[in-house]
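Field: sequence (string)
Field: structure_tokens (string)

Example rows 1 and 2, in order.
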Amino acid sequence: MSMHFAAPTLTHVAPAQDDCVTLQLSQLPDTLTVQVPDSSDFAANWSVYAILGSDGEEPEWEGDEVDTGAWDDAEDEMEKLFDIEVRLPKEALQPYLNREVELRYKFRDESSMEPYSQPLRMRIEP
């Protein structure tokens, strides 16, 4: 389910030129940090994970889930987290060497709704 979530950003990577980020695989750390932009459109009881591929409904690769909130005993409810980061292992990019791939983040909640973000296009080079 495509919603209007902003595209992810990569920590420690230069901003996209022409809406495409070029990544030098040999220069990357073992794990890329993907920033999930803060938004009022997702709930504190969801989880989020990185996905690769042109189809957000059926991604080619899925990362590990991260919670979007934490339990607050004082308030007795879930508190939404900010500055959420998901991880993208370098080896997940290997199959895309010398071509472009779309990176998104995708949410999961208790219902069957699994909205995902706009893509960040990446060109993977050696």
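Row 2 begins here:
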Amino acid sequence: MFGARQAGVSSLVMSVLAATALTGAAFFTVSRIDCDPSPRYEQHDGVTELVDSCLTDEDLPASTDLRQRAERSERTGEKLPSELHR
């Protein structure tokens, strides 16, 4: 009977330690973010844009049409709408 109780206590202790470690890792990760804490949406000429966010263009999937426009703008030197505010 003592062995079953010891196994239950050790299981509880290990669970608490794992939860504590995961909470610490999450807190550390969130505290190291270097972006503005208040992203917002702005609307310009019928286009809604996310401003002051940690996301970059590379983080978001691009459609084929957008990729073709980006390649064309690189060749011609024209700016994409997403580059106008930079």
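free_text_note (row 2): The CA atoms of residues 9 and 15 lie 10 Å apart.
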